[in-house]
Amino acid sequence: MSRWLLTGGAGYIGSHVAVELLASGRDVVIVDDLSTGFAARIADSAAFVEGSVQDTKLLAKVMRERDIDGVVHLAAKKAVGESVERPLYYYRENVDGVLAVLAAMNEAGVNKIVYSSSAAAYGEPAVGEVAEDEPTVPTSPYGETKLIGEWMVRAQAESQRLAGSGLANVSLRYFNVAGAGSDLLGDTSVANLIPMALRATTSDKRPMIFGTDYPTPDGTCIRDYIHVVDLARSHVAAAELCERDSQGQLSELFNVGRGSGSSVREVLAMVSEVLGYDVDPQDVERRQGDPAVLVARTEKIERVLGWKAELDLRDMVQSAWSAWPHAVSLRA
Length: 332
Ligand code: UFG
What we know:
Layout: E1 3-7, H1 12-23, E2 27-32, E3 47-50, H2 56-65, E4 70-73, H3 80-85, H4 87-108, E5 112-118, E6 129-130, H5 141-162, E7 168-174, E8 176-178, H6 193-202, E9 208-210, E10 222-223, E11 225-227, H7 228-244, E12 251-256, E13 262-263, H8 264-275, E14 282-284, E15 293-296, H9 299-305, H10 313-322, H11 324-331
Parallel strand pairs: 1-2, 1-4, 2-3, 4-5, 5-7, 6-15, 7-12, 8-11, 9-14, 10-15
Antiparallel strand pairs: 10-13
The structure holds uridine-5'-diphosphate-4-deoxy-4-fluoro-alpha-D-galactose.
């Protein structure tokens, strides 16, 4: 049985990744500083070490003492707007985090990494449906730090390859993550469309549509929404791919999305359907920096990883709604 260190395993996405890694028969050791995560979300059968992902010494110690085979590195700050206000904070948290993880891996001789990147790396692409080789021109410090993390992983892998040790690595560019795998694991941050719509409607407000004059069929932005359970499973497939590469030569990058888009209006219509009443969205001004269309091309991940999303928008909205009361209580 292999043992994986998971950074950020107490977070919204990380707790789902922990569940799926454990279900695949792997041992999991979580490192999380609980700055945005919750101890209550840590899977029972995972080991937990409270600490910073920037603490190279601690990470190397955990890797050696627990005999770690590979790392899934998720721990990071992820609010796009906040990253514009506090760029240095984002650079320190996200870039230093990758740096410390890679340095500790090198020190402890761990040679497999799955790195959590983001579709924010693409910025405002010229095409709506992006393949992995589309130019990356991030439009926020958050997107920049995620892209820099990819570069760091690849550069370190190349240097280790030249030195003869190798570093099997997979970067996963997440699209718009939503939903919950259980009522206890919902997204506690209210930073994205579905949680924002749920918060508005549960506080007797109308959800907002940011811009209705985009060049799309209904005038609202189109995104590729991916269920967090599907996303979590892509990490297991990526870990498996790393494990098959005993020489540490693998270096891969995948979009993780459904490969189909939904407009803001369509998402809010689904929210109305699931809640059983019209949430009555209001049209407001565009939000700055939103690309009209951002949808993943998923041929590569389907072909190479054999992974494909199985859950749809209804599953995302239903599970997010079902997990909403517990997420509200965790936030309180
Ligand atoms: N939107 C609204 N009303 C709201 C909230 C959002 O109309 O109350 C719109 C946005 O303008 C956008 C769409 O809904 O068109 C999705 O917005 P989100 O804020 O949910 O997500 P983003 O696409 O802006 O960004 C998300 C993550 C990023 C990630 C990106 C990848 O927050 O971290 O997806 O596609 F990089």
